[in-house]
Amino acid sequence: MIYLILILIALGVFTALLGIISSLRGGGDDIVHPATASCATCTGDNDMCEQDCMLEAATKDIEYFDDEELDAYHDRPSNQYSDTEADEFSEIMYTMKPEEVKAWNRSLILRGINMPDQIKDEFIALAE
């Protein structure tokens, strides 16, 4: 029994020493902290990255994509667009480069504009 207690104490001391040595050598530098990660590297696979980038985008000026006319739809529910109105969104979306589509969606969200339900499937296909 005493041997078991001595082994556990020795194992604890050994683990503590390894932790101290690792921190002195700068161990743990491979961890990416949200403050140092770039939103340009967000792939959509990491929800935390997307949330951090949304927060970062909220502190910056809103980026417009030559779509100021969509501001007229501020606060309209996504299920209350006519097909003609949804086509306005679709036309703008299809004039963008694929890598701009996610940023455009962030812009709409920050401006309080809900994307019409009619084009959400197309958006998801383009944003991937």
**Termini Cα gap:** 59 Å
Tell me the helix content: 40-55%
Helix-strand pattern, N to C?
HHHHH
Strand composition percent: under 5%
Low-confidence stretches: 28-37
Sheet having the most strands: none
Q: What is the overall number of helices?
A: 5
User: What is the 3D form?
Assistant: elongated
- Domain count, please report it: 2
- Class of secondary structure makeup: mainly alpha
Number of strands: 0
- Rounded radius of gyration (Å): 25 Å
What is the mean predicted local confidence, pLDDT? 81
Can you tell me about this structure?
With 128 residues, this protein is mainly alpha-helical. The protein folds into two domains: 1-31; 62-127, no CATH class. It is built from five helices and no strands. It has helices at residues 2-24, 47-59, 83-94, 101-110, 120-127. The chain is elongated, with a radius of gyration of 25 Å. The N and C termini lie far apart (59 Å). The relative contact order is 0.11. Residues 28-37 have low confidence and may be disordered.
Helices and strands, with pairings:
Layout (H helix, E strand, L loop, with lengths): L1 H23 L22 H13 L23 H12 L6 H10 L9 H8 L1
